[in-house]
Amino acid sequence: MTTISGPAGTPDPAPGAAPHGYADHKSDHLARLHKIEGQVRGVTRMVDDDRYCIDVLTQISAVTRALQEVALGLLDDHVRHCVTDAARSDPAAGEAKLGELALALRRTLRL
User: Fold this and answer.
1) Alpha helices, DSSP H only, in the chain?
2) Residue 59: which CATH number?
3) 82 in any annotated domain
4) Could you give the 3-state DSSP secondary structure of residue 111?
5) Partners of 88 in the β-ladder
6) Which protein family is named in the record (predicted)?
């Protein structure tokens, strides 16, 4: 059974199917996300402790940048794996993946 993985409405691969493009870097992405999670908890503590506004904003900026780096890594994996493989196997599938990529870039860049 195929499940929908997110707002883009793209299906997760079926068991035994090719893994997502980020499979080779999954542990790296997860490690960064766990670090970011800790940073967010730290920001929460800062607010709870009534820390200086600028210090809190500085940490929020660092968290935002860290999330952007994860997003860029995932986009890079998508292009190098999903888009490239689709384009090699079927031109129509390649076009569909390019459309997905354009939409993902718009979301990431908020255009």
Assistant:
1) 26-48, 53-77, 84-89, 91-109
2) 1.20.58.1000
3) yes
4) coil
5) none
6) Belongs to the CsoR family.
**pLDDT single digits (tens) 63-76:** 999 999 999 999 99
What single-letter amino acid sits at 8? A
3-state secondary structure 64-78: HHHHHHHHHHHHHHH
DSSP structural state of residue 19 = P
Q: Is residue 88 part of a domain?
A: yes
> Considering the domain boundaries, does residue 13 fall inside one?
no
pLDDT recorded at residue 111: 59
- Name the burial class of residue 49, with classes exposed (0-12), middle (13-18) and buried (19+) by CB atoms within 10 angstroms of its CB: exposed
Instruction: Give the orientation angle of helix 53-77 with respect to helix 91-109, to 10 degrees.
Output: 170
Domain with 28, as residue range(s), is 24-109
How many structural domains are present in the chain?
Answer: 1
The pLDDT profile of the chain, 111 residues, written as one tens digit per residue, is 333 444 455 555 544 455 677 878 899 999 999 999 999 999 999 999 999 999 999 999 999 999 999 999 999 998 999 899 999 999 999 999 999 999 989 988 885
Does this model's pTM top 0.85? My answer is: no
